[in-house]
Design goal:
Blueprint lengths: L3 E4 L1 E2 L4 E9 L18 H30 L1 H14 L2 H12 L4 H17 L3 H22 L13 E5 L4 H4 L7 E6 L7 H9 L3 E3 L13 E5 L4 E4 L3 H9 L10 E2 L5 E8 L2 H9 L5 E5 L1 H4 L8 H14 L4 E5 L27 H4 L4 H17 L3 E6 L5 H20 L8 E6 L2 H5 L1 H5 L4 E4 L1 H9 L17 H14 L5 E4 L10 H7 L3 E4 L4 H10 L2 H13 L3 H16 L1
Parallel strand pairs: 3-4, 4-5, 5-6, 10-11, 10-17, 11-12, 12-13, 13-14, 14-15, 15-16, 16-17
Antiparallel strand pairs: 1-8, 2-6, 3-7, 7-8, 9-10
Helix pairs in contact: 1-2, 1-5, 2-5, 3-4, 4-5, 11-13, 13-14, 19-21, 21-22
Bound molecules: phosphoenolpyruvate and magnesium ion.
């Protein structure tokens, strides 16, 4: 047998070898032939529907509690959203109408959910993923109504690679990372729930492979290549060995320096409790980006000051000797929150996002968040740094900092223990790359968000695979913007970091060290490898590489330089 390769989207840069188990939750449920309506008694069917809803609610509550234990309460909150869908009067009415028109309950559920699913499918970004949630609730009800068994994902054999058309939140929450080698789905993108879970649990995973996936049989040996976004079916010996070898570099719990002694802080990007645990386990020096939006997602109202205080205190406590950079709420763009009633905008990425909302319509929320943060810093050992998202003007930064100072003053005069945080800004708009000297003179630090900076510098949507070649931080225009930002901090007291995805790509570590970054922050899975790279770098050579990259006119030339540099080291 010769190996063949299926292509999809890598959810984590990890690889694994294992044996395929197909997860087909709906296999036993064939609803293609609705029975003749005269035989249906609508009262009985309504009762069956009601009792299935009750059992679904019980199951969801159990799964929520299990997920809370395993991956944290924020992830578990998705089950509350499912419970809400179960009680949604519009969906309930639609199903009952179908029953009254003569369908048995299971068919009525299928029909009654259809228009809700369709509505979500027509929306953008994370809202579109709500369609998956609704399908999950529908399939659960149908399964309960027809009495079908469900494959127990929590009890799979060691080395299993789960294959599925799609994995819903309730499916992924059952996967045990100690036994499951990885998973592959036919559908889904980088921001799908399944991909987010994979990153949280450091599970090798490839999503969005397409219909070809169905040709792979149960029991087949596969290699999941998360980094390349590939699935190798019936791999030959060499491929298997390479997959086993590409396993994680040794975890370094101490801060690292380059071979010639330049210290570079290597921090983690976090958003959920499970990621904080992953960050400490994998040797993060601190947190370089805490995306606080996750505290606000999948709930009906914003978390209050106490809830936020607890979350921030716990994170600071996890890094008693380190620094935790907390980004204030970055809502808007691709991050909608239903209860905040965001306006319909033609170009949400260029609209009311991040600090723009915090200084305007979400002023109160901003103050609550700052109070919770500064109180938490007053109690904890670790150092807090507060960072603003999507700043575009010096005035926005100044206004944000004044709010921080006002909250510090208020808490101090109330006699609360207070620790004055560092205050800095993300550099993710071209405006702030140009204004970097003015910001470096006012801020304690600058941290480059290359995901957005690249999208705005290159006018290329970060979520659109058709312009992925342009949305690439190796584009010379982006590399030059990065150098401009770093140069602006030289000779000032401000430190400069990077917390966009670029920071976690080991192939780019030498370039970033050469450009002069003091700190790199990334998702926990690449921490060890980046630390290992840093230790092997000579900073003078890295600077030379950066100079040559700054002279490059095309992405091809930058790529060539990187290939050469990485090749030299790997020999
Ligand atoms: C970025 O834009 O690079 C960034 C880190 O922020 P986010 O990905 O959360 O927009
Ligand atoms: Mg951003």
């Amino acid at each position: 047998m010769t190996e063949r390769t299926l292509r999809g989207i890598g959810a984590t840069p990890l690889s694994a070898v294992g044996s395929v188990v197909w997860y087909q939750p709906d296999e036993a449920v064939d609803l293609s032939d609705p029975p003749v309506s005269e035989t249906v008694d609508s009262d009985t069917e309504r009762e069956r529907f009601e009792s299935a809803r009750e059992r679904a609610r019980e199951e969801l509550e159990t799964e929520r509690d299990r997920a809370a234990e395993r991956v944290g309460s924020d992830e578990a909150a998705v089950f509350d959203a499912h419970i809400q869908f179960l009680g949604d009067p519009q969906i309930e009415g639609a199903v009952e109408d179908e029953i009254d028109s003569g369908l048995p309950a299971e068919h009525a559920v299928k029909e009654g959910f259809a228009s809700g699913i369709e509505q979500f499918e027509g929306m953008e970004g994370r809202m579109a993923e709500r369609a998956d949630d609704l399908r999950d609730v529908r399939d659960r009800l149908v399964r309960l109504l027809v009495g079908a068994e469900r494959l127990d994902l929590s009890g799979l054999a060691d080395g299993t690679v789960v294959f599925a058309e799609r994995l819903t939140p309730s499916d992924t929450a059952q996967l045990d990372p100690d036994t499951v080698a990885g998973f592959v789905t036919a559908t889904g993108g980088r921001t799908s729930h399944a991909a987010i879970f994979a990153r949280s649990l450091a599970l090798p995973a490839v999503v969005g492979v397409g219909d070809e996936l169905s040709e792979v049989k149960e029991g087949t040996t596969v290699v999941v290549e998360g980094e390349a976004g590939e699935v190798v079916v019936e791999p030959d010996e060499g491929t298997r060995e390479r997959a086993a070898e590409t396993d994680r570099a040794e975890v370094r719990h101490e801060p690292v320096t380059t071979a010639d002694g330049r210290g570079i802080e290597v921090a983690a990007n976090v958003g959920q409790p499970v990621e904080i645990e992953g960050a400490t386990e994998r040797g993060a020096d601190g947190v370089g980006l805490y995306r606080t939006e996750f505290l606000f997602l999948d709930r009906e109202e914003p978390p209050n000051e106490e809830e936020q205080y607890e979350a921030y205190r716990e994170t600071l406590a996890a890094f008693p000797d380190g620094r935790v950079v907390v980004r204030t709420l970055d809502i808007g763009g691709d991050k909608p929150i239903p209860y905040l009633d965001l306006p319909e905008e033609e170009n949400p990425f260029l609209g009311e996002r991040g600090i723009r909302r915090s200084l305007g319509v979400d002023e109160k929320l901003f103050e609550t968040q700052l109070r919770a943060l500064i109180r938490a810093a007053g109690e904890a050992e670790g150092d807090l740094a507060i960072m603003f998202p999507l700043v575009a003007t010096v005035e926005e930064f100044e206004a944000g900092r004044e709010r921080v100072e006002a909250v510090v003053a208020k808490l101090e005069s109330a006699g609360e223990p207070v620790a004055r945080p560092e205050v800095g800004t993300m550099i993710e708009t071209p405006a702030t790359a140009f204004l970097a000297p003015d910001l470096a003179a006012r801020a304690d630090f600058l941290s480059v968000g290359t995901n957005d900076l690249t999208q705005y510098v290159m006018a290329a949507d970060r979520g659109n695979e058709r312009v992925a070649d342009l949305h690439d931080p190796r584009q010379p225009a982006v590399v030059r913007a990065l150098r401009q930002v770093v140069a602006a901090t030289e000779g000032t007291d401000a430190w400069v970091g990077m917390c966009g995805e670029m920071a976690g790509d080991p192939a780019l570590t030498e370039l970033l060290v050469g450009l002069g970054f003091d700190e790199l922050s990334m998702s926990a899975v690449t921490l060890s490898e980046v630390k290992a790279r840093i230790e092997a770098i000579d900073s003078t050579e890295a600077e030379r590489l950066a100079e040559r990259a700054l002279d490059a006119s095309t992405k091809g030339e930058v790529d060539e330089l990187l290939t050469e540099a990485n090749g030299d080291r790997d020999q």
